Amino acid sequence: MPGIVNAAVVQLIVMCIYAILAVDLYGDFGSQGTYTNIFNESVVLYTARGTTYGQEYYGTFFRSLYTLFQVLTGESWSEAIARHPIFEGGGQPGGVGKSIVAAIYFVSYVIICGIVLVNVAVAVLLEVIQ
């Protein structure tokens, strides 16, 4: 049992680090209600609840943590959560850099939390069973 608790604590710490980064990186994303995509078009960006994208998904630490939990469950995270920051940029200076940072952020999160750390928990469980 202590091994599972340790694996869960490590998973939670990594998720908290990514949640803090998300609040800083994406908390004000689309704060004007629009963003410029990679095709240099202005896209209206309000959620179904009438709030801006950044405020809805990353506005506070706990919203961000819940959003990252949604990513781990695989529940429509790519289209609803990751696609907008990855397609941000347009012809603006640094626009491509923002897209690259967003892609690295989400892909590294899925690899670290969704693949590596979940497998660590499974390995601990298998070790306990033997």
Query: Over all CA atoms, what is the radius of gyration?
Result: 17 Å
SSE string: HEEHHHH
Structural shape = elongated
Average residue-wise pLDDT: 85
Q: Strand order within the widest sheet? A: 1-2
Question: By helix and strand content, what is the structural category?
Answer: mainly alpha
The counted number of beta strands is 2
Biggest sheet record: 2 strands, antiparallel
Determine the fraction of residues in helical runs and give it as a percent range. Answer: 55-70%
Please give the count of helices: 5
Architecture overview:
The protein has 130 residues and is mainly α. Helix content is 68%, strand content 5%. It contains five helices and two strands. Strands 1-2 form a two-stranded antiparallel ribbon. Helix 1 (2-26) crosses helix 3 (61-73). The longest helix is centred in the last third of the chain and has 35 residues, at 95-129. It is elongated. The model has no long low-confidence stretch (mean pLDDT 85).
Considering the chains and any ligands shown, give keywords for the structure.
elongated, two-stranded antiparallel ribbon, 130 residues
